[in-house]
Specification:
726 residues; alpha/beta; GIY-YIG endonuclease; Rossmann fold; 6 domains; seven-stranded parallel beta sheet; binds adenosine-5'-diphosphate; binds zinc ion
Length: 726
């Protein structure tokens, strides 16, 4: 007989939308699992699934309970702090605890078989070359592998397959002879840390000494430094000091492409184990990072957005590079902001959080201005070069050809002949963003989405950038039969081709999602640029941040005028960030930088505010405007997004929902209105925008809607603190 006050009802969080947890019975055959352990349970009549133990009780309000099938972890998989983060995040984003947890967990740990995470062997040479040459005089292949390990280790045998297909066996042979050894981590030689011995600039010194005062408790710090002011150096010193205290550090970066560079830079400077974590890794690789972070074997994890959930044994700080970057906000499924969660996690773990940016988001800026965040400013560049010279070029008087005006082309030539590199920036890939009939004005559109099709010349196809559907180029206008169907506007493909024609001898390197799909391709492109030859880089958003191109002296920005007509109140903030970041690429080293912005509106007050007075003043002005207009960060925003094949059903559903919000005193309701992309993959998309000056009231309203509209024919989602109206 089990005694009455035994905790044998287990609360299990599962990936379900209707409850934070379900109750299960602990069978007598099993002992009590620890809080935070994974268990296997039946959900409905389906196959067993993995859930996480989030609580216990003696009894359950629900009748007869299903039993726990199996306990997968003998020790907690998530500790109390991890669980607290999930709980608070779920509450904030108005989803269930299970939805939050299972958004975060690598799939490996969601598998019912519960196999151990496969380990990887990192091979390293363990003897001198002379000794190996003696031993391997008759085994040239082994010697070759040995030499490679000596020069490039630690390395996995996978990275040796270009030498021999049986690299794993060869490594093992070397190990048997005592010439090599394997570790489950990429153990870097402690002596490898290189100190460049910089004398900190005055700004760096000030920031660094303030930062050191807050290395043992919760404090959010904004490291607000112009491009080239040496923010990375501050990150590195902070990481070094935390590692000395035997703590772990999580560094978030916006994009996969940025990880190898920063990773390399940091790894050269620290005595510790580092790993990269991003969604491009295999599932087992991600699981390995989790495991090693959890057991404390890893010292530093450099990760993209989802890395914010990585469990650590002894986390000492979270650093977020380019904190303003929109990729920290997940735009589908659970719409969390990794930056905001970092602050939440910092509070839960009692550790500092450093937000770094040359162009802080207005949300962060606002917190810094109000004193909630400690504001560390770096205003001078480490090389004391002035910021680049900005030229606003009126394209009404300088008609561009293939995207670039004669003036811009001449400037490009000049910078190239001086031995420098040039960046042409535009945020549109493909050849041209429109195919248009000259007679009747018909524009090629995607059948499934409410967007124009982009022409890609190398494919000779039209492509939808939202659903990827491809179309043949029509010979006649489908509306009027005219043959005068032509492309209009420029994309990176066209700009690159125009440049190749005009500067026949110079390398043109294109960075966009068509050319750069893998980290490897990134690396290849970067290598061309790093080789130092004069060249023109043509790139999209991808290139606006984080990269140090020392030879870049000119940046030409094409086609930014759309932002002035955007319905998004944040459009000018984003444009200011983009232009500042892109301009910051110019003249980082010894060359004086120049930036040309091709625009139809050189007189626009926006440019004056940003360039004459700088980002801080600009941000300050914007913030004042936001307060006047009652937009975030002065208020709190949430969007209800819904989609359906039937536009009538969609609208009537959302109209009904809107009616339930209308008499709320604290929340302004706008909608239903079509999303900026009103149709995507055959689904019509509409939204209701909720804007309130009390977070509590806003959240209460959403909770009420969730209850009221929990069973419905129309799929809908909540986006808390949205960053776009797409
Ligand atoms: P940010 O990230 O702020 O744009 P970086 O951290 O990339 O700037 O620094 C710009 C360059 O200056 C880098 O090449 C870096 O190695 C170098 N650097 C950083 N701090 C110093 C310093 N105190 N003295 C000289 N060079 C420095
Ligand atoms: Zn026509
Ligand atoms: Zn489409």
């Amino acid at each position: 007989m089990q005694s009455k006050n035994q905790l044998n009802v287990i609360h299990v969080a599962l990936k379900i939308p209707f409850a934070d947890h379900l109750d299960y019975q602990l069978p007598r055959s099993l002992s009590l699992p620890p809080l935070g352990a994974r268990v296997l349970v039946h959900l409905g009549r389906n196959k067993p699934v993995v859930g996480v133990v989030v609580g216990f009780s003696e009894t359950s309000p629900h009748g007869s309970l299903k039993p726990i099938n199996e306990i997968l972890d003998n020790e907690a998989f998530f500790n109390d702090k991890n669980l607290a983060l999930f709980k608070q995040a779920a509450k904030y984003y108005q989803i269930t605890l299970g939805e939050m947890i299972f958004t975060a967990v690598p799939s490996w740990f969601k598998q019912v078989h519960n196999k151990p995470v496969p380990q990887q062997k990192w091979w390293q040479a363990k003897s001198s070359l002379e000794h190996a040459e003696q031993l391997l005089s008759t085994a040239p292949k082994q010697l070759e592998v040995f030499q490679y390990l000596l020069n490039h280790g630690p390395i996995t045998s996978k990275s040796l397959t270009h030498l021999t297909k049986s690299a794993a066996q060869v490594c093992q042979l070397l190990a048997d002879k005592g010439l090599a050894q394997a570790n489950e981590l990429c153990l870097v030689d402690n002596q490898a840390a290189i100190d460049p011995g910089y004398t900190l600039t005055t700004d760096q010194q000030t920031a660094w000494s303030k930062l050191q005062h807050h290395d043992k408790h919760f404090k959010v710090m904004l490291l607000d430094g112009v491009t080239g002011s040496g923010k990375t150096e501050i990150y590195i010193r902070f990481i070094q000091s935390l590692l000395k205290q035997h703590k772990q550090v999580l560094l978030l970066v916006p994009e996969i492409g940025l990880t190898p560079q920063l990773f390399h830079e940091i790894s050269q400077r620290i005595n510790g184990q580092m790993a990269i974590l991003h969604s491009g890794l295999t599932d087992s690789a991600r699981a390995r990072v989790w495991q090693h972070a959890k057991t404390g074997k890893l010292d530093v994890v450099v990760a993209t957005r989802s890395g914010i959930f990585t469990p650590f044994q002894n986390l000492g700080a979270i650093l977020i590079d380019e904190e303003h970057d929109l990729s920290y906000k997940q735009q589908e499924g659970v719409r969390y902001s990794a930056r905001d969660l970092a602050v939440l996690r910092g509070k839960i773990e009692h550790i500092p959080v450093v937000l770094g940016s040359a162009t802080p988001s207005l949300e962060t800026f606002n917190h810094a201005q109000q004193g909630q965040y400690l504001w560390l400013k770096l205003r001078s560049r480490t090389n004391h070069n002035p910021l680049p010279n900005i030229v606003l070029q009126n394209v009404n008087n300088n008609k561009p050809n293939m995207g670039l005006s004669v003036k811009s082309l001449n400037a490009i030539r000049l910078h190239l002949t001086e031995g420098n590199q040039v960046l042409v920036f535009l945020n549109r890939r493909g050849w041209s963003p429109k195919l248009i009939c000259q007679e009747c004005g018909w524009v090629a559109q995607c059948d499934d989405c409410d967007v124009y099709l982009t022409y890609h010349k190398h494919l000779d196809l039209l492509k939808c950038h939202h659903c990827d559907r491809r179309y043949l180029v029509p010979e006649f206008c489908p509306a009027c039969g005219s043959q005068h169907v032509e492309t209009m506007g420029v994309g990176t493909e066209k700009i690159a081709e125009g440049l190749k024609k005009n500067l026949s001898t110079t390398d043109v390197v294109r960075f966009d999602r068509d050319c750069v799909k893998t980290p490897k391709q990134w690396q290849n492109n970067l290598e061309i640029v790093r080789s130092g030859k004069p060249c023109v880089i043509v790139g999209t958003q991808m290139l606006s941040k984080g990269h140090d191109f020392p030879l870049l002296s000119l940046v030409v920005v094409v086609n930014v005028d759309n932002s002035f007509f955007s319905a998004d109140f944040r459009a000018t903030e984003y444009l200011a960030q983009l232009l500042t970041q892109v301009s910051g690429r110019a003249g980082r080293a010894d060359t004086k930088g120049e930036v040309i912005i091709q625009t139809q509106f050189p007189e626009h007050p926006f440019f004056n505010a940003l360039f004459a007075q700088g980002y801080e003043t600009f941000a300050h002005q914007q913030l004042t405007e936001r307060i006047q207009m009652q937009f975030p960060p002065a208020t709190y925003l949430a969007i209800i997004r819904a989609q359906h094949r039937d536009s009538y059903m969609l609208e009537s559903f959302l109209t009904e929902m809107t009616a339930c919000c209308n008499d709320n005193q604290h929340v302004n309701v706008l909608g239903p209105i079509p999303a900026m992309i009103a149709k995507k993959q055959k689904l019509h998309r509409m939204q209701i925008i909720l804007n309130g000056n009390q977070r509590r009231a806003l959240h209460a309203l959403i909770r009420q809607l969730k209850q009221q509209f929990n069973q419905n024919k129309v799929q809908w989602f909540i986006d808390i603190d949205p960053v776009s109206f797409d």
